[in-house]
Amino acid sequence: MPEPTTATTAPCHVPSEIDAVIVGAGFAGMYMLHRLRGLGMSAIVLEAGTGVGGTWYWNRYPGARCDTESMQYSYSFSPELQQQWSWSERYAGQPEILRYANHVADRFGLRRDIRLETRVTAAVWDDGKRRWQVTTDRGDTVSARYCVMATGCLSNARMPDFPGRESFRGEVYHTGHWPHEGVDLAGKRVGVIGTGSSAIQAIPVIAETAAHVTVFQRTPNYSIPARNGPMTPDYEQDWKTQYDARRAMARQTRNGILANFNDKSALEDSPEARQRQYEARWVTGGTTFMASYNDLITSKASNDTAAEFVRNQIRSIVKDAKTAELLAPKDYPIGTKRICADTNYFEVYNRDNVSLVDIRNAPIERLTEKGLVTGGKEYEFDAVVFATGFDAMTGTLLKIDIRGRDGQSLRTKWEAGPRTYLGLMTAGFPNLFMITGPGSPSVLSNMLVSIEQHVDWLADCLGHAQSRQCNLVEPTQQAEDDWVAHVNEVAHKTLYPSAASWYMGANVPGKPRVFMPYIGGVGRYRQHCDDVAAKGYEGFRVEGRVGERVG
Ligand code: N01
After folding, report:
1. In the 3-class helix/strand/coil scheme, how is 44-66 assigned residue by residue?
2. Which of 250, 313, 373, 381 yields a CA-CA distance of 20 to 30 A from 263?
3. Angle between helices 243-251 and 522-534 in degrees, nearest 10
4. SS3 for 424?
5. Which DSSP string corresponds to 210-274?
6. Do 353 and 207 form a contact (C-beta atoms < 8 A)?
């Protein structure tokens, strides 16, 4: 296997005119480039980092690994790639996933069209030319027919604006921006703020060598043991011999993951049978615990049974009863904030060098020279780790100054929350596409499955436009309004909106509370997108000369 690489190639030249600009060189951007090349289009990927890999380039905190199994969290578009690549563990760690991203970049010759260390700052639509003017922080301006935002859903790291942040003399890190050279926390007093997926993975690893770890928890999280382990040759072979059939099945599931879905209500089983079901899933491990029954996200009564099971597991693992109760989530249904998968997370609180501080009712007041203050008490640290998450789904897009028809800014259009048709486009912004944008299954799914579905759909759409000499694709206002209404309606049939989650924008002060991803299911959504295409891109205007509808 090749060693991890980052910036191994000289930055490529940015042409002034091109068919397509792709923003971001994560899994979405790289595959988009590959597909656009297949259409004979000229395309360039602009990437802020010094290497490819997106999420897996930035998130290098200790313990970072994917909690979807690697046999499923990988590209399916190349039979040779999926047969020849071998994963070393059931859930690959960040360095291995980054190696995979680099392998893909090399294998498909993508680097020559990827410009690294180049952040897109603005994209402005020129209605006369029907082109996007894309500007970068290096001062380039590229004129592109199409602009594809492959910017990722969790790429805008959030540092809460605590007073006194600058005064802290120790080291400060964010899990989403971890230094590439690594960080030595051995023997240090470390404060960790946050208890989401990143913290839950990082804390047990940091605790192995730190002098002391103090975790500041605002909201406890449900987490299931990952049960990670080495990939066995039998398991790998079993997948590889049936890859096509399994990938096809995964595409039809609710979240793009084959998970032994139990298609019955939790309330149909006796309490004893339910306990057996949950225990079996707990032993198997992983976030597919939520597939124990078919109504865990729609029925509060069913959900309560799963939530109570996990709370009892926490109580049985954590020796100190008070700490166990603090770690047991009680005020939101299981799964409605992103469920986590861990290795020794709850167990870590049995160590003498780990303590938990509940900050729900006593928010962090400020940082000081020596540490931070909460509940009137100062805690002293050598290092503080912010595991405080992201301005998810919309944050990165809105950081770019995107202006569509008549100079309308996307920030203004999305002031009350994102509005899209299919999570792919937004009206008034022709030829601007989003990969796994708000309004699509996106973060509720196996990202690789959803990325491939979007990229494939979009490549087909642009191929369709190309073959008809069309140069403009744009959703109608009506199609967008109907889709937004549908996304909301489906979300409100579930328990999800009841939690103050980042899915709802609740983690960012002032962000509109709108359930952003589409919860109708990956299979159903795919079918809908395919139907739209089969009906000549229903809900889109696909035009050649100005005003002439061709599609
Ligand atoms: O971020 P998060 P993350 N004061 O937003 C707390 C994916 N991911 O980086 O819940 C005090 O989940 C905040 O508290 P609260 C995955 O989709 C995947 O961990 O808002 N605390 C919360 O505890 C995941 O969901 C993988 O009350 C503050 C934490 O910080 C997503 O990325 C691994 C605070 C943030 O948790 C984001 O995960 C890692 C404040 N002012 C991530 N502000 C895998 O595949 C925030 N918090 C395994």
Report:
1. EEECCCCCCCCHHHHCCCCCCEC
2. 313
3. 80
4. coil
5. -SEEEEEESS---EEE----BPPHHHHHHHHHTHHHHHHHHHTSSSS-------S-GGGS-HHHH
6. yes
Residues within a 6 A CB radius of ligand 1: 65-67, 154, 160, 175, 193-199, 201, 218-219, 338, 359, 364, 387-390, 443, 502, 507
How many residues does this entry show for the chain?
A: 551
Q: If we measure between CA atoms, which residue out of 438, 433, 427, 432 comes closest to residue 476? A: 427
Nearest CA owner, ligand 1 atom 1? 389
Residue 134 contacts residue 123 (beta carbons within 8 Å): yes
- d(C-alpha 137, C-alpha 119), whole Å: 5
Structure tokens at 282: 């707990």
Which residues, in sequence order, are bridge partners of residue 132?
125, 144
| Residue whose pair of structure tokens reads 């436009």 in the numeric block | 465
**Cα gap 214→479, rounded to integer Å:** 50
Give 520 Cα–ligand 1 centroid separation in angstroms.
24
Reading the block at residue 168, the tokens are 């802290």
SS3 143: strand
Cβ atoms within 10 A of the Cβ of 134, count?
Answer: 24
105/287 Cα distance (integer angstroms) = 29
d(CA 386, ligand 1 centre) in Å: 10
Q: Are 516 and 396 in contact (CB under 8 A)?
A: no
pLDDT tens across 432-486, in order? 999 999 999 999 999 999 999 999 999 999 999 999 999 999 999 999 999 999 9
Query: Atom 5 of ligand 1 has which residue's CA nearest to it?
Result: 389
Give CA 293 to chain center in angstroms. Answer: 24
Cα–Cα dist 100/80, whole Å: 14
Amino acid 182: pLDDT: 93
The three-class DSSP label of residue 308 is: helix
CA 193 distance to own-chain centroid: 20
Euclidean distance between CA atoms 274 and 440, whole angstroms: 32
Asked if 515 and 522 touch (Cβ cutoff 8 Å), the reply is: no
Q: Helix 27-38 and helix 94-107: axis angle, to 10°?
A: 10
For residue 83, the CA-to-ligand 1 centroid distance in Å is 34
| pLDDT attached to residue 544 | 85
- Spans in the chain with pLDDT lower than 50: 1-8, 546-547, 550-551
What is the 498 CA–ligand 1 centroid distance (Å)? 17
The pLDDT tens digits for 20-49 are 999 999 999 999 999 999 999 999 999 999
Angle 447-467/243-251 helices, nearest 10 degrees? 80
Is the separation of the CB atoms in 342 and 313 below 8 Å?
A: no
